[in-house]
Amino acid sequence: MEWLPKGWTPKLVAVDIDGTLTDANKRLHVGAIEALRDLEAAGIPVVICTGNTRPIAYGLWRFIGLSGPLVCENGGVLWYPNGDVVLRAEGKEAEAACRWLALRLPGIDADGIATNTWRESEWCLKTGEDMEAIQAELSNSAWSHLTVLRTGFAIHVMDPCLSKGQGLAQVLKRLDIAPEDVLAVGDAPNDLSMFDLVGWSVAVGGAFPELEAVASVCSPEPHGATFPPLSEAILAAKKAEG
Ligand SMILES: [Mg+2]
């Protein structure tokens, strides 16, 4: 298995959480955590790039022991270890749009999913809601500029400028690291923009076919089991570099 291009070592590794560090049941792969620690110990920072909220990503960052910034809410929220927070969209606006929607479409639960409590740049409705009706109402409203996107666990009402790729690009600029020097690992369509941006991309085993189609390599290992051999290959490349 050739994990990396010959003679190339990433300067930074960007990783998704759900389905990438975890299995399909959202349980973290313990070997993946150890592999990320090995990368950090070798001076390769790990940046979590997730649709999850900042408190959830921060908890992982803290307890794994990472050093890189965080890209949360699919690029809506950036967090830096010095405490700086950049909100790339206003979640209150998306919430107001959803509360208005619930008046127009009785039966919609405007409170949405539980993690809305911590959401800062978007609002998420439950995944079973009538997405076509939501889109139709919004397109004729004061919130017609917002995008409606369904993922496996929610319907996201969000600013169309939000993507993991755009969020990661902003972080890399501040770190002064070229996107070509970055390796990204993911499993789902919300990782596509991140794969477009970086120099090398790895789709974990069990990834969505549309991500596998554009990945530089597809892991033969399922989800988080990708990380031990991938990390080993990165560390070997770094050692060979001298
Ligand atoms: Mg994922």
Structural class: alpha/beta
- By CATH, the architecture of the largest domain is named 3-Layer(aba) Sandwich
> In which range does the helix fraction lie?
25-40%
H/E element sequence: EHEHEEEHEHEEHEHEHEH
Poorly predicted residue ranges: none
Mean pLDDT: 95
Describe the model.
The strands form 2 sheets. The protein has an 8-stranded mixed sheet with strand order 5-4-3-2-1-9-10-11, sandwiched between helices. The chain has a 3-stranded antiparallel sheet with strand order 6-8-7. The chain has helices at 30-41, 54-64, 91-104, 131-139, 164-175, 192-197, 209-212, 227-241; strands spanning 12-15, 46-49, 70-72, 77-79, 85-87, 122-126, 147-150, 154-158, 182-186, 200-205, 217-222. 34% of the residues lie in helices and 20% in strands. By secondary structure, it is an alpha/beta fold. Helix 1 (30-41) runs parallel beside helix 8 (227-241). The protein is elongated. The protein has 2 domains: 12-87 and 162-241, Rossmann fold; 91-158, Hypothetical Protein Ta0175, Chain: A, domain 2 (Alpha-Beta Complex), CATH 3.90.1070. It binds magnesium ion. The site of magnesium ion has 7 residues, from loops.
Short description:
The protein has 242 residues and is of the alpha/beta class. It contains 8 helices and 11 strands. The strands form 2 sheets. Strands 5-4-3-2-1-9-10-11 form an 8-stranded mixed β-sheet, with helices on both faces.
